[in-house]
């Protein structure tokens, strides 16, 4: 959740570049509502049905509480036409991209 | 009458190495606590590196003078370095091998916004570049 706080604090930098940050997890609607309230400048998705996670192929099986399936920490940049321009999976579970690294990836990969 | 001009023996040989070794291992831990407190999520490779270097320094201290305290110090720092290497290497993830490909449209999907309305791959198209970030959850 730390990464969401960092993205939220830098929302103006994203908006100024016409970048929309969308965050998602496999948690249910109630948890997603709480997350949305805590981070109002991000768009929060509840991917409880794994529709997005399975399409992206980022499910880590049995890695969550009580052996539930959860998502690998992944960042994907999609351009305005819906094409993928960049994908990053952190090499260690404890590491995350900083907002500056995300912005740099957009600058380098989206024309 | 004779006088002795021999230098006084060093009372604690290697003590500086011992202090440096233990201090370095502790410093790595303190730096990681500070990193987490400042919400920086980069990989802390300095953590096991500092403990490993600390263990080497304690070995040097032990080489110069043996004592139970130094042996215990070495065991402590070696255990710490081992735990830190295990912590870092044990959290490594496999590389991505899924269906998402650069320069290709994002695969079709359907999911739900936090307000309960649907969200699909079509919603990725529009006036803005999209950054999709998965997170592990609130637990």
Could you give a short description of this structure?
The complex is a heterodimer of chains A (111) and B (139). By secondary structure, chain A is α+β, with helices and mostly antiparallel strands.
Structure notes:
The complex is a heterodimer of chains A (111) and B (139). Chain A is an alpha+beta fold. Chain A contains five helices and six strands. In chain A, strands 1-2 form a two-stranded parallel ribbon. In chain A, strands 3-4 form a two-stranded antiparallel ribbon. In chain A, strands 5-6 form a two-stranded antiparallel sheet. The radius of gyration of chain A is 14 Å and the shape is globular. Chain B has 139 residues and is mostly helical. Chain B is built from three helices and three strands. A two-stranded antiparallel sheet of chain B has the order 1-2. Chain B is rod-shaped. Chain B starts with 14 loop residues before the first helix and ends in a 5-residue tail after the last strand. In chain B, 28% of the residues are buried. The model of chain B has no long low-confidence stretch (mean pLDDT 89). Classes of the chains: A alpha+beta (111), B mainly alpha (139). Chains A and B meet through helix 1, strand 1, helix 3, strand 2 and helix 4 of A and strand 1 and strand 3 of B.
């Amino acid at each position: 959740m730390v990464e969401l706080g960092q993205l939220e604090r830098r929302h103006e930098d994203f908006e100024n570049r016409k970048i929309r940050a969308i965050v998602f997890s496999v948690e249910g609607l109630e948890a997603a509502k709480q997350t949305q309230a805590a981070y109002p400048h991000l768009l929060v998705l509840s991917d409880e049905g794994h529709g997005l996670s399975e399409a992206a192929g980022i499910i880590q099986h049995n890695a969550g509480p009580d052996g539930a399936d959860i998502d690998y920490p992944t960042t994907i940049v999609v351009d305005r036409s819906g094409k993928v321009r960049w994908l990053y999976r952190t090499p260690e579970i404890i590491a995350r991209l900083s907002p500056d690294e995300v912005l740099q990836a957009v600058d380098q990969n989206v024309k | 009458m004779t006088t002795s001009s021999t230098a006084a023996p060093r009372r604690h040989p290697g003590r500086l190495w011992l202090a440096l070794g233990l201090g370095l291992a502790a410093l790595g831990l303190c730096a990681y606590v500070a990193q987490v407190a400042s919400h920086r999520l980069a990989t802390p490779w300095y953590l096991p590196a500092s403990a490993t270097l600390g263990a080497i320094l304690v070995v040097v201290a032990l080489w110069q003078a043996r004592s139970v305290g130094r042996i215990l110090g070495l065991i402590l720092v070696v255990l710490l370095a081992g735990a830190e290497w295990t912590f870092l290497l044990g959290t490594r993830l496999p590389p991505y091998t899924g269906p998402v490909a650069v320069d290709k449209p994002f695969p079709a999907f359907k999911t739900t916004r936090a307000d309960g309305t649907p969200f699909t791959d079509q919603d990725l198209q529009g006036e803005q570049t999209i950054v999709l970030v998965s997170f592990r959850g609130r637990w």
